[in-house]
């Protein structure tokens, strides 16, 4: 009983600190020029899933404050070859779960062209218990509607538990398999967000243009193309919590908590309301 109260209090304290940091960023006009959101599944019961309603709320919040861009726009922004005049956002999905089709039409109506990072070995994937993967036909349909197809490794294995040779195979073979299915793969998403110097080296040798992590950080021109940070979207229904999650100071807080190996359980009820605030 005491333990559950303790963790509930920590979660409440974390939310309050995030809101304070968010308002500080608003007051001093600190914002990320572009943010990349990472979603996994839609409308499912797993902890990383986002309800359909909350997903649409989050996208509508972003559309109020930012322009939707593709990962190619982010790539050229990092290379300093394309200026993003307005604050922008890009949407990505990791795993290639069929549930993302539930929001396909909504995204199309709002002019958003996401990138979906898929697992190439659907039959032997270590993530089969988590993802009900899209088939070739569905992927080509998405591609024809402007979605980009990226790679999330061959089997979604934990790279930290593999040998160097096994990691190289996961990175190289996945790209080759997807190429045989008719997709030109430019971008890579690290399974579980884990990467190291040797993993990055393998990604570069496989000739990916860019690789994305789960690091909470600001993307700038000349940022490292092989550790591009994303923000894992949580199942927030409350606008201020969502806006806070993409503010620079909260990103810094989350990086600090990660370094300290502190994990805040975000699966709490946040269905109370406060006045809306002009955010970013």
Structural summary, described in words:
This protein is α/β, with parallel strands linked by helices. It has one domain (32-259): TIM Barrel (Alpha-Beta Barrel), CATH 3.20.20.370. Helix content is 39%, strand content 11%. The strands form two sheets. Strands 1, 2, 3, 4, 5 and 8 form a six-stranded parallel β-sheet that branches. Helix 1 packs antiparallel against helix 9 (248-259) and helix 6 (164-180) packs parallel to helix 7. Residues 1-6 and 267-280 have low confidence and may be disordered.
What is the helix fraction of residues, given as a range? 25-40%
Q: How large is the share of residues in beta strands?
A: 5-15%
* CA gyration radius, whole angstroms: 18 Å
SSE pattern: HEHEHEHEHEHEHEEHH
Domains (count): 1
CATH superfamily: Glycoside hydrolase/deacetylase
Uncertain stretches of 5 or more adjacent residues = 1-6, 267-280
- Structural class given helices, strands, pairing? alpha/beta
What name does the CATH topology carry? TIM Barrel
Outline type = globular
* CATH architecture heading: Alpha-Beta Barrel
Number of extended strands: 8
């Amino acid at each position: 009983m005491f333990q559950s109260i303790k963790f509930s209090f920590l979660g409440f304290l974390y939310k309050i600190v995030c809101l304070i940091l968010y308002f500080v960023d608003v007051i001093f006009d600190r914002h990320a020029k572009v943010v990349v959101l990472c979603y996994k599944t839609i409308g499912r019961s797993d902890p990383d899933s986002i309800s359909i309603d909350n997903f649409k709320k989050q996208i509508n919040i972003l559309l109020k404050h930012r322009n939707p861009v593709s990962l190619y726009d982010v790539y050229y922004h990092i290379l300093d070859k394309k200026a993003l005049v307005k604050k922008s956002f890009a949407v990505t999905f990791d795993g290639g779960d069929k549930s993302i089709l539930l929001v396909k039409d909504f995204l199309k109506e709002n002019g958003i062209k996401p990138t979906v990072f898929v697992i190439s070995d659907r039959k032997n994937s270590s993530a089969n218990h988590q993802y009900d993967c899209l088939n070739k036909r569905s992927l080509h349909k998405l591609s024809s509607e402007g979605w980009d197809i990226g790679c999330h490794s061959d089997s979604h294995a934990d790279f930290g538990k593999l040998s160097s040779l096994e990691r190289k195979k996961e990175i190289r073979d996945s790209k080759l398999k997807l190429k045989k299915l008719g997709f030109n793969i430019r971008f890579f998403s690290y399974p579980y967000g884990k990467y190291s110097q040797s993993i990055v080296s393998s990604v570069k040798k496989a000739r990916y243009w860019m690789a994305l992590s789960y690091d909470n950080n600001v993307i700038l021109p000349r940022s490292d193309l092989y550790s591009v940070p994303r923000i894992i979207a949580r199942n927030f229904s409350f606008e201020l919590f969502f806006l806070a999650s993409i503010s620079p100071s909260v990103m810094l807080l989350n990086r600090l908590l990660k370094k300290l190996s502190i994990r805040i359980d975000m699966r709490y009820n946040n269905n109370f309301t406060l006045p809306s605030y002009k955010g970013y």
